[in-house]
Each structure stands twice: as C-alpha cells, then as structure tokens.
Design brief:
- The structure is a single chain.
- Helix 2 crosses helix 4 (81-99), helix 4 packs antiparallel against helix 5 (107-118) and helix 7 (177-191) crosses helix 11 (253-274).
- This protein folds into two domains: 2-274, Orthogonal Bundle (Fic-like fold), CATH 1.10.3290; 297-342, Orthogonal Bundle (Arc Repressor Mutant, subunit A).
- It is mainly alpha-helical.
- 39% of the residues are buried.
- It has helices at 13-33, 37-58, 65-72, 81-99, 107-118, 155-171, 177-191, 198-212, 223-229, 231-242, 253-274, 283-293, 301-307, 313-325, and strands spanning 134-137, 143-147, 329-331, 340-342.
- It is globular, with a radius of gyration of 21 Å.
- The termini are far apart.
Amino acid sequence: MHSFKEDNPKIPLGSVWLMNSISEFKGKQDIYTKQSPQILKSMIEIALIESAESSNRIEGITVEKNRLKPLIIGKSKPRDRSEEEVADYRKALDWIHKKYASLRISPEVIQELHCLCRGESWDAGKWKDKDNNIVKKHANGCIEVIFKPLSSKETPRAMEQLCLVYENSITQLKYPDLYSIACLILDFLSIHPFRDGNGRVSRLLMLLALYQHNYQVGKYISLERIIEQSKETYYETLNKSSQKWHQAKHDIYPWFNYFLGTILDAYKEFEQRAGTVKPARGAKTSIVEHAIKNQVGKFTLSDIIGDCPSVSRDMVRNVFKRLAKQKRIQCLGKGQSAKWELVAKE
C-alpha cells in the first residue's frame, strides 16, 4: 500500500539512532528473560492487565479497577459490555502470545484478531459495510472530520494488497523490519477496515508483528499503556503522517519516530526492572512500587493488590506504609477503601 512507496527510503539520522538503540536492547533481552522466572511471570501478568485496560481505555471503554484482575487473570464472567470488551481483548492477546510464530499476517488473521477482541458484536471479524470517517470531538461538542479512510467497497482488496506488500517487504528485505511494521500499522489505520475496533486491532497487529521479529518486550511491558500515557502525541503523529496518504505523498516519519520511541521506552523500562531485579529480597517490593508509580489519578490499596497478582496483601500494605512515611504517597481518607495519590515533586 501507500506507505511502502519507496524502494530505498532515506531514513533520517534521528530515526536510525532510535533503531540502533532498540537493536542494542533487543540483543540483551534473552539475558534478562533468564534471570528471574518468578519476577518475569509477575511482569507478564501485569502487562496483560495493563494492555487490556489501556487499549480499551484509549477508546473510551473503562471498567472498575477491582474487576480487572478477575476478568483478565481469573475466570470471572463479564457483567456488562465494557467488561466483555476488556475480557475479549485478553483473548486476542492470548492468541498472539501462543500462536505468533505460526501466524501469517493476512486478511484472515486480521479479521480473526477483530473477531476475538470484539466478541459477541454482530460485525466481529467483518470488514465495514459502510464508509466511515476518523473524527475528532472538541470540548464544545463539535465533531471534526480529520481523515477519510478508504471506502467500504475498496477495503477488501486494499487489505489483501497491504498484507502482500508487507510480506514482500519482509521476505525481500526491502526495509528495516521496524520500518515495515510502522508502515503496516499506518496503512491499516488509514484503510480503517472495520466499523469499530480499528485502534485495538492496530495495537494487537503491532504486537504480533513485533513478536514475529523477536521484539519480545511487549510480553513484559505493556505497549498499550505507554501509548495511552502519550495518547495526544499518538493521535497527533498519526494525523500528521496520514496527510496526503491517498496520494501516496504522506510523510511517514512523525508516526515512525513515535512508534520507535514507544518501543524504546518499553525496552528501557524492561531493562530497568528485569535487568536489575534479582530473585532475592526486594523484588516484589519493586513490583508494587512500579504499580503505584504508574497509577493515573487517585487509587486504593485494592487497586494495587489487583495490579500485583503475585504479591501478598500484607506486603502491599507494608510498601504503602513505607512510601507514606517517605512522603512519596499520601492518604486522602480512612479505612480499606481510602483513596491515595502520589505526592507531586516540587
């Protein structure tokens, strides 16, 4: 498709530096994954929770904090449509984690990803049957059309072409693998092949493609959480890079550099946690501190217990007490349901 337009793209030096940095981290990932199986298991569980939560929350779908662990790690049945969306995303993640090596990125696989993460929706796994627009909702209620994707009539053939040109770019070694993945995701979002769920499928597709090129960081660090934490930049770079996409005159590099930055941030966090954590005392404390640090807004003791499935309730309480004594967090009430917040640094 349109992002695979150049045979020998002149990749800017800044992008090359980012790719080189990612390659260095990738070269060390096997060392980290062999150091502490217990801690890595906890990181996988946390990443699953964060990924399912963040990818849906980006789309405005939220569930109660205390329901996340039972839905994603346990066997609790969803109680409403929002909980179904989160549980379904977990099913799609499971499929990728278990099957990525045997999957070929094809229209059928992409439809299956949509089917898994859309669950009981009437159009799960089906290409859109009506034209759709990418819109921006302003605070005053006005809706602005910022991009017109391909029509529903053009979509099936466009998805076939996209998968073929991506596969060709990989087998023929036409581009660096990270460049090909970035092109795949940008073109997928520009086609916008489904009525709903395009954003979630794009992030699942990103994870699948990264796994297939042995970028395993998304298994331990939630890429979706990192994207959510930089959501405004995420949408801004996609918007910039999609301008003139229909004419194949667009600039992929705003999106490409954001994509590379996301992967690099994940690897840095992975090294910080897996590269320094030993299976000795203090490892689970580090997990709790990380969960607290990544809270958005106010949180409760139960929220953190839910985010740290391998850590006992008593240990979480002890970490809370220590951080409160150090004035790194503060309590806003009394009792088990009391709200807490991070203390802002002056």
